[in-house]
Design brief:
The chain is built from five helices and five strands, in the order ααααβββββα. It is an alpha+beta fold and 269 residues long. The radius of gyration is 57 Å and the shape is rod-shaped. Residues 1-7 have low confidence and may be disordered.
């Protein structure tokens, strides 16, 4: 279709010039010579070439403009698509931003709550540590080195500002649980004690947190720790079999069985 539109004007131009030539010849007849006819034909040919050249140039410009138009349309469509994608992304980011803001507000609220808890927790932990110290100092002298070292570490932890409140709480609870666990266990260990004003290496039998008993390695002398006097006192020899069996059970040389042990207030014969 475009080729037809390009050639159609040229056809009319050529037809015009040819008609002009024949009209001139018709009017003048023999007045024109052969040279004149050739001159007119040459001028017509030149005019036709000029018209064709102009039309070709115009067609090139139209093709160029068509390509430029198509390019601009493609760019416009691409930008339109990009705008749609960016709009969708912006909506997603807005939702994400709102959710993040909500989470930050929750975290800030929790931080404030933690700060309040930490302020109230510190006095409780310090008091618990003091009560543990009193328990160790005033209770029976069982595993003193181990328990005193644990308390010293706990005190150091509670005073350290670089340690979090949660870690301080964990360490305090750990110390309390260990002390509580002593009430549910028995054990036997050796230690030098003062018995009847003499230093004696004795087997110590710990009955939970209730009582401490001792015996000499030969099993002939037994005693108990008098908390009221804060001293070891000798027991009557009638308690020797029970204490000896208790030591054997604590050392896991005999199965656990019922025993009759002197606990509570005792009057030493």
């Amino acid at each position: 279709m475009r080729l037809f539109m390009v050639k159609k004007p040229l056809f009319f131009v050529c037809l015009f010039f040819i008609s002009a030539i024949f009209y001139t010849i018709f009017l003048t007849g023999d007045a024109f010579s052969e040279n004149a006819v050739d001159q007119v034909a040459a001028e017509a040919k030149t005019s036709v070439k000029a018209a064709i050249k102009m039309r070709q140039s115009t067609q090139k410009d139209q093709d160029k403009w068509a390509l430029e138009k198509e390019k601009l349309i493609n760019e416009y469509n691409a930008l339109k698509e990009k705008k749609r994608d960016l709009t969708s992304l912006n909506q997603e980011l807005s939702l994400s931003c709102s959710e993040t803001k909500r989470k930050i507000e929750n975290i800030e609220s929790k931080i404030k709550e933690i700060a309040i808890i930490s302020e109230n927790l510190a006095p409780f932990l310090n008091k618990s540590c003091e009560e543990l110290k009193i328990m160790v100092d005033q209770g029976p002298p069982m595993l003193l080195n181990e328990r005193e070292m644990r308390l010293a570490k706990l005190e150091k932890t509670l005073k350290d500002k670089q340690i979090s409140a949660s870690e301080k709480f964990r360490k305090t609870m750990e110390a309390l649980f260990i002390e509580a666990e002593y009430g549910n266990t028995i054990e036997v260990y050796q230690k030098n004690i003062m018995l009847e004003n003499k230093s004696v290496l004795a087997d110590i039998f710990r009955l939970g947190r209730l009582s401490l008993f001792c015996r000499t390695p030969d099993g002939k002398t037994t005693g108990y720790y008098n908390e009221a006097e804060h001293a070891w006192q000798k027991l009557d020899t009638k308690y020797n079999p029970a204490i000896n069996r208790a030591c054997a059970m604590g050392a896991k040389r005999e199965p656990i069985d019922f025993l009759s042990l002197p606990v509570g207030r005792m009057v030493v014969q």
